[in-house]
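Worked example

This section walks through a single chain of length 416. The input is the sequence exactly as stored; nothing has been trimmed or padded.
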Amino acid sequence: MNKTPVKNFIFFILIFYSISSRAQSTYPYSKFPYNFIRYDKNSIIFPGDSSDFEKLYSKLDTIIFQGKGKINIVHIGGSHIQSGIYSGRTRERLQTFYPGLNGGRGMVFPYRMSRTNSPNNYNVNWTGEWTTLRNVQHTKSGNLGMLGISATTYDSTASIKVVTGKNYLHYDFNSVRIFTDFSKKSFKIIPDYKGKYTISEFPEKGFIQINFDNYIDTLSLKIHESDSIQNYFTLYGISLDNDNSGIVYTDAGINGASLPSFLKCNLLALQMKQIEPDLVIISLGTNDTYTKNFVPSYYKQNYINFIAEIKKANPDAAILLTVPNDDYYRRRYPNRNIQEAEDVILELAKEYGYGVWNFYQIMGGFNSSSLWYKDFLMAYDRIHFTTKGYLIKGDLLFFAILKSYDNHIDDKNKKR
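Given that input, the structure is written out below as tokens.
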């Protein structure tokens, strides 16, 4: 970046001055013609300590003003996240609101191997027979990592191909980390690449790293049998990495997942430690509250246990809890359990110093899903959103984060 840090600072302050002045009169997203959305509540709130977010925003200062460093974001949830529309929108907005913030795509997985939906900002093709395991399956067991899903093949001729840059932003990379098992019986995996590359194995960290001699947007991998004892290969995820500064945003969502689902992921802390998240956004609660017998104390303890796993990986990570959206139980009854989940989340934030994005209140509170449905922003089940609804939700989360960072900038200016 050719601009000096001073020019960067002036330009950036001008951007935020414009945003702030507009926010005082009309909310910048008031172009959405829906008066049930509580734009005045769209912010990150801190019922307790906010010091972890100050560390996060200081790191963002360094990226913006000096062009150095990366911020890793991991967004964990259920079907709202697996589809990649809502989280993908937030990723896109965060990586484009200022020049030089596209730090890479993050971790990806061939979800379609499990006959389920996949984010559409990358494509995956494969050959060979693969079996999958998801953290919501009760009749299967096995190791699972940060993404909550795995794929295993016993085919020594199998292959995987990942293609990025076809939609949204261009996510090229010059190295990858392949999260897998390490045992004498595990096949090797090598790239089908015409240039030069190096492969390094890190069994204690749970991944194979491949460095390429150039930036690419297509990764072709093939299984390689190097010993007759080898008979399987398991994939937990592929991190598409580069040397650029900026923001990296991994969305880890599994349809139907709850807090207990991710608590089953025994490799989560190990893999998250390698990703080194600066911010973990947790959007779990829709499936936890979809029951007649919701127990707030159980939900709270599961949350405490889950965040403890995250903090094992990175004790300094900022934690953002998102309150589940209003929904209907069995398509007939407005779900009052969301209000109890909201209370739990606010209690946790106050006790442990987490941030909260209270989307339940932002979307309009109790029974507001009926209003979103009437305006074609939610599906018939009044649980999931339409594409348009998810894009609005992603925009709202982005702007809440941006406003929180704007407050950080204002506080810094006051101290000068």
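What to look for: Confidence is low (pLDDT under 50) at residues 1-14, 16-30.
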